[in-house]
Specification:
By secondary structure, the protein is mainly α. The chain is 81% helix and 0% strand. It has helices spanning 2-26, 30-42, 47-71, 77-99, 103-122, 137-142, 144-157, 162-173, 177-201, 207-231, 237-262.
Length: 264
């Protein structure tokens, strides 16, 4: 029994490190990896407990990674605050609906959404990205609609929502990829926290595993943040890497959840 707990602790620390690295690197995707890792690597038995535990861990790790990006000036704070504040309402509503649905069906729907987002991000752009606009209140209010959708998806699927937030911020504000990554982390953390609170009320969080997952994620996030800053010097590399990770994880989630659904 003790050996099993040690193995599970090592798996949780390593998995958390991978999630933290992904969050620091691309501002999203970490929450996508969290639930499959908790289920198939760490050994959490119930999908909803994995979702709740992952939401808490991703939230804390996103806030930790936010500090590094903020110090480097990668965060547009006004837009980040508006996005997070508006989207949290959607996250609370979405997480309530998600708790009522079968976990494997949630994962399968999420995989389809991820696949679509990855394909769209890999398509060549016919027109150049709009120039970054001034971070005034008018620009930030344009992000409110995207924030509600991203927040609802975040809560419903038990994810941070960075894969929606990053392109949403780029589309609404014209900010560069590295600024969208940095700014998204505040919303990822806030959405994840709202979802985690909702799941905690229903007793759907494993607190010990969450603590181990978070500890691993703090160290992984440092490496991811440093690499993201270097890759930002090459215009399209970070965007392509983001899309590639999204599509790989989408295939994995579809395979695992689809196999489980076939058993019913």
């Amino acid at each position: 029994m003790i050996d099993g707990m040690i193995e599970q602790t090592i798996a949780a620390l390593a998995s958390g490190g991978l999630v933290g690295f992904t969050l620091g690197l691309i501002g999203g995707g970490g929450s996508i990896l969290a639930t499959p890792l908790l289920l198939y690597v760490v050994g959490v038995a119930q999908p909803h407990i994995a979702i709740g535990t992952g939401a808490l861990a991703v939230s804390i790790n996103a806030y930790a990674n936010l500090i590094g990006h903020a110090r480097k000036g990668n965060v547009w704070w006004r837009c980040a605050l508006v996005f997070a504040g508006t989207g949290t309402v959607g996250a609370l509503i979405g997480s309530s609906l998600g708790k009522a649905m079968d976990g494997q069906r949630l994962l399968f729907l999420f995989g389809l959404l991820m696949l679509a987002v990855g394909i769209l991000m890999l398509r060549p752009r016919k027109t150049p990205l709009p120039a970054a606009r001034k971070s005034d209140m008018r620009t930030c209010m344009k992000t409110a609609g995207v924030a509600v959708v991203a927040g609802a998806a975040s809560g419903f699927f038990g994810i941070g929502g960075g894969f929606l937030i990053v392109p949403g911020l780029m589309f609404a504000t014209g900010m560069p990829m590295i600024n969208a990554v940095g700014s998204s982390l505040f919303a990822v953390g806030t959405f994840g926290l709202a979802t985690a609170v909702n799941y905690a009320v229903s007793g759907l969080i494993d607190w010990r595993i969450a603590a181990e997952f978070i500890a691993g994620g703090v160290f992984g996030g440092i490496g991811g943040m440093l690499l993201a800053t270097k890759l930002a010097r090459r215009r399209n590399t970070l965007n392509r890497l983001f899309a590639a990770i999204v599509m790989v994880v989408a295939g994995y989630v579809l395979y695992k959840s689809g196999s489980s659904l076939a058993l019913f």
